[in-house]
Amino acid sequence: MKEKIGFIGLGIMGKPMARNLVHAGYTLYVFSSGAASVRELEKEGAISASSPKKIAELSDIIITMLPDSPQVKEVAFGNDGLIEGLSKGKLFIDMSTIDAATEIEIHERFAAIGVDTLDAPVSGGDVGAKAGSLSIMAGGSKNAFNRALPLFQILGKRINHIGATGAGQIAKSCNQIATALATQGVIEAFSLAASAGIDLARLKEVLSGGFADSRTLAVSGERMIKRDFSPGFKLKLYTKDLRIAKQAAAERSVNLPGTQLLHNEMQQLVSEGKGELDFSALIHLFENN
Question: Which is catalytic among the residues 172, 204, 234, 274?
């Protein structure tokens, strides 16, 4: 018999992920600040719950997909939070991108009542969330990972158990650093090409045939060419992710000069009111210069 799933957070990423679980035949309880998303999923078979506490009471496995550490902690420990409804034997999976220290705190407090946890952030954006092709990097016990694996196989294609609690979040920071700096490379290449009057679509085709080819070039490059900055992954959230990466690096005395520079550039655009755009909108900064 399939376990009952609770899902909290139905944003750009969370809604399609939850939808995929419903369509796979799971009993799914949902809670979100976005009432429209809840109603939409109810029409497809999900069941609305009144609070995180209720989600915890009704579900065997609880998944959160939220913007940042404060929201995850509020859902976990706040009024009518998960901790008030959890009981021994349940599993908590946080698929948000937050700091590793918060994941460790949640693990320790939930472990005290017999609840195992995984931090399992994802990569792949809204396209991967809709297609069920996310990359999932999990930190926590092997037993918890094995229990969650049937769900992960619905949500993603590249699924890896990275290590102990918090390791998933460190791996996600590494992913965000690599992706952000790759995006910076595409932007700089496009900026130079545009200044020389080169057609960017043709340049992208040329670059795709050699070592410069990448998923970043394919997806973000296409957005830049089409001037489509509707959010696949919001700039303000990517800025948050690089803040988390910088924090993790500072705690380990690791120097990240490129990440620092790019984070500063992202913060500038967010301050200009562009935080709701896709992070590929970073090209605006170069065009303005």
Answer: 172
